[in-house]
């Protein structure tokens, strides 16, 4: 029998926090004929309603009725309601049909009455629910003295169709969910200090579920721990919620769709074939368990993080066979919605190793270029024997995690591109008999890092390519690694480092030699582009010749775009008006072949804007910049635009924001110069010279000069007057001193070579590889390789030839041991 109460009866304890459930009070105070308070277990529905009942000092009588097991059939519900009316003094009259008696009595009753039906989801749960809802709506519609409040966990007809017949106030789960501010207030009341960020995270993780939030706070207060989501408590609440569900289909739908982090309606149909997907989605959203978000034109659904994780745990414990079933179903939808990375992830989670290996085989270039995280996860999940049998996966497992982006670093904003030269490199290397996958995996990874703006990772990966080439005496690999280091340093604006890599003897031979074909020809083209960019950034006398040596590339991809950039880059410092106009046209044409949203597009477009500014077309430059995402690359040129417009303070603000980011050295240097220029124009000479001195230090450290040459002569003279060392960076002829590839200074001999390392270095003069050195010194080839790596590192050398050149005139210890 359900619980029956009046204003003076003992009711469930009301919460002391009147702010929680305020939406319930607001709805009840409206005095609508029908009020529906709907939310899952633990949302404080009853507490809020009871608080309102207890706080009423006047108004019509209120009868509180809590339904139970006997009311799950229609006859039991009407029997209870008849008893309630008789206790209230409502004239019911004779009759054995309780439904007919109640309907007649409430239709004829003329005194005000508020009837509160709690746990209304139990009314006719097994039989008679539609008739109950229909009758109650009709009674409220006929009797304007009757007010009905239903408190329920489920959507009922009384809410959906009832609102079409009578004025209805509805309180939904979102109205009862706790916000971060309320979580913080509850924690404070229990003596816990919780930051606003932490409180909002708890609210988001639990979907604002009041009972779960309270329980977690209470557990933290009792245990003296930080306020965190208690997984055991959440699991208990979810168990209860699943038991409350009357529909096995809805329960199954809920558990299965919790497996993916988010899903579309099409994905749900694949996961739960034959289900009433639209109905289930509406019911779960109505219950406050499911959120909907738009991803462009697509609609995606997801559960709060802690709730989803609890559902997956419950599914794994109760029906473990379902989890791989779901992932198998997700493989097909992932192919349409997520691409190869999604298919690979679900194949691994389903234990479908053959499918996973097939995805790696078919989509290798895309995965290693754009989805290294997914590759690493797969390599860790796939059985070790299968990983060892696939050299690509072995490299992924052993190499990629060490160089991938560290936590907390800028994830980048660039959309991925798929440069054609990567496929060409792989084909050429294979045709020339290279050692193959290990080098190409690392090279593809390094290139993808460059295109993602992750230059630290690129330097690591290109360095590993070089090390592989040194260790295995693989010239092509050494050249690939070295040209990668050159290009990355050039992109960063580390002119001195870039020129240092260009002086590598092996790469210098290729860079300065006649045009080559095949893989070396591709390396040559890349080296010439990188070298030209560095020469322009350093405003070297060789800059024009370096740009002229760039060979026209047939494939319109990112490498070709960088050759266009190098030519336009030169036009910014040494081009005539005609040359600038020609470069503007070339950049506009190149942008039509460039993938939107990538770093290559940003590089070309900002160079176009810069040339437009130099040509006096600031309006056109602004239009170009307005089409770009807000990044350090675009902001650096935007600061230059603001300078051209005389908006000095705005230019400083934008430039300082760039300096606060991990942008390239080129961007930082340009912004330092921009700030000095703006301060000079604002009449703040002391601050301007301090800013200019910092720019000069950066120029001396990096070899960058170009931004200094873009300063108006009178501004440079004004700034340089307080920084004498600046004049050497922009001599009267406008060209910095030459730093040719040849005659590079030889560093002093390091004093920290061990005796064995010195012996290995001496033996290197007579032997081209580890085998000969090992035989001469009586040690293993692997030991020789280890010593050679250390020697190269200490010398700053990248090859045998460079190590021998650096040490040619040294009195190397260990020479006497071989009779020299």
Automatic annotation (TrEMBL):
Transcription listed as a keyword: yes
Keywords for this protein: DNA-binding, Transcription, Transcription regulation
InterPro entries, alphabetized: P-loop_NTPase, Sig_transdc_resp-reg_C-effctor, TPR-like_helical_dom_sf, Tscrpt_reg_LuxR_C, WH-like_DNA-bd_sf, WHD_MalT
Signal peptide: none
Domain HTH luxR-type: 746-810
Transmembrane segments: none
Keyword Disulfide bond assigned: no
Superkingdom, taxonomy of origin: Bacteria
A Pfam family: GerE
Residue numbers spanned by region Disordered: 730-749
Protein name per its UniProtKB record: LuxR C-terminal-related transcriptional regulator
Organism: Georgenia faecalis
């Amino acid at each position: 029998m359900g619980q029956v109460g009046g204003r003076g009866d003992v009711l469930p304890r009301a919460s002391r926090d009147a702010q929680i459930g305020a939406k319930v009070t607001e709805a009840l105070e409206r005095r609508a004929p029908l009020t529906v308070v709907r939310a899952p277990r633990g949302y404080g529905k009853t507490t809020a309603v009871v608080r309102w009942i207890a706080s009423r000092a006047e108004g019509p009588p209120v009868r509180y009725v809590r339904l139970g097991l006997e009311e799950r059939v229609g006859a039991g519900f009407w029997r209870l309601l008849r008893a309630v009316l008789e206790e209230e003094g409502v004239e019911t009259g004779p009759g054995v049909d309780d439904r007919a008696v109640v309907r007649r009595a409430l239709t004829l009753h003329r005194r005000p009455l508020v009837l509160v039906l709690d746990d209304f989801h139990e009314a006719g749960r097994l039989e008679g629910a539609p008739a109950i809802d229909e009758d109650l709506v009709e009674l409220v519609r006929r009797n304007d003295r009757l007010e009905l409040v239903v408190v329920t966990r489920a959507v009922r007809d009384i809410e959906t169709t009832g609102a079409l017949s009578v004025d209805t106030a509805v309180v939904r789960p979102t109205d009862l969910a706790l916000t971060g501010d309320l979580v913080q207030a509850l924690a404070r009341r229990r003596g816990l200090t919780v930051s606003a960020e932490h409180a909002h995270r708890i609210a988001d993780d639990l979907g604002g579920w009041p009972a779960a939030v309270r329980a977690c706070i209470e557990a933290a207060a009792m245990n003296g721990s930080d306020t965190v989501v208690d997984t055991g408590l959440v699991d208990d609440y979810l168990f209860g919620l699943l038991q409350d569900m009357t529909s096995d289909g809805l329960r199954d739908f809920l558990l299965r769709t919790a497996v993916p982090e988010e899903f579309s309606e099409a994905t749900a149909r694949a996961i739960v074939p034959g289900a009433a997907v639209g109905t289930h989605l509406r019911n779960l959203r109505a219950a406050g368990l499911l959120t909907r978000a738009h991803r462009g034109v697509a609609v995606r659904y997801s559960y709060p993080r802690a709730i989803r994780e609890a559902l997956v745990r419950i599914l794994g414990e109760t029906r473990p066979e379902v989890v791989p079933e779901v992932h198998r179903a997700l493989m097909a939808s992932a192919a349409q919605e997520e691409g190869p990375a999604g298919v690979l992830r679900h194949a691994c989670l389903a234990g479908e190793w053959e499918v996973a290996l097939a995805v790696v085989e078919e989509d290798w270039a895309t995965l290693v270029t754009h989805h290294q995280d997914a590759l690493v996860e797969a390599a860790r999940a796939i059985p070790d024997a299968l990983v060892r049998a696939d050299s690509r996966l072995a490299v992924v497992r052993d190499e990629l995690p060490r160089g991938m982006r560290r936590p907390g670093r800028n994830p980048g904003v660039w959309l991925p591109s798929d440069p054609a030269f990567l496929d060409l490199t792989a084909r050429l290397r294979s045709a020339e008999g290279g050692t193959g996958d290990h080098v190409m995996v690392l090279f593809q990874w390094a290139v993808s890092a460059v295109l993602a703006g992750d230059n630290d990772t690129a330097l690591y990966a290109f360095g590993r390519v070089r090390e592989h080439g040194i260790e295995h005496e693989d010239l092509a690999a050494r050249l690939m690694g070295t040209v990668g280091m050159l290009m990355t340093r050039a992109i960063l604006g580390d002119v001195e480092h870039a020129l240092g890599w260009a002086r590598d003897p092996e790469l210098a031979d290729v860079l300065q030699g006649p045009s080559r074909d095949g893989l070396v020809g591709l390396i040559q083209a890349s080296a010439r582009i990188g070298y030209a960019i560095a020469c322009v950034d350093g405003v070297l006398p060789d800059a024009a010749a370096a740009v002229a040596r760039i060979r026209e590339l047939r494939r319109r991809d990112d490498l070709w775009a960088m050759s266009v950039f190098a030519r336009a880059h030169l036009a910014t410092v040494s081009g005539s008006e005609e040359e600038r106009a020609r470069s503007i046209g070339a950049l506009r044409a190149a942008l039509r072949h460039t993938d939107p949203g990538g770093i290559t597009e940003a590089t070309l477009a900002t160079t176009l804007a810069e040339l437009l500014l130099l040509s006096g077309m600031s309006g056109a430059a602004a239009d170009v910049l307005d089409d770009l995402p807000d990044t350090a690359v675009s902001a650096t040129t935007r600061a230059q635009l603001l300078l051209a417009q005389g908006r000095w303070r705005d230019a400083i603000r934008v430039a300082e924001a760039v300096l606060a980011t991990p942008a390239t050295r080129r961007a930082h240097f340009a912004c330092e110069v921009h700030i000095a220029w703006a301060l000079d124009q604002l009449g703040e000479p002391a601050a301007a010279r301090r800013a200019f001195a910092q720019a000069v230090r950066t120029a001396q450290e990096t070899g960058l000069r170009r931004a200094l040459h873009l300063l108006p002569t009178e501004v440079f003279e004004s700034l340089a007057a307080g920084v004498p060392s600046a004049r050497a960076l922009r001599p009267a002829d406008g060209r910095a001193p030459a730093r040719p590839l040849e005659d590079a200074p030889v560093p002093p001999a390091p004093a920290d070579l061990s005796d064995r390392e010195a012996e290995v270095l001496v033996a290197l003069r007579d032997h081209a590889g580890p085998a000969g050195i090992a035989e001469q010194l009586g040690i293993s080839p692997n030991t020789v390789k280890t010593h050679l790596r250390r020697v190269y590192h200490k010398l700053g050398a990248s090859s045998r030839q460079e190590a021998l050149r650096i040490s040619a005139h040294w009195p190397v210890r260990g020479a006497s041991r071989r009779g020299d």
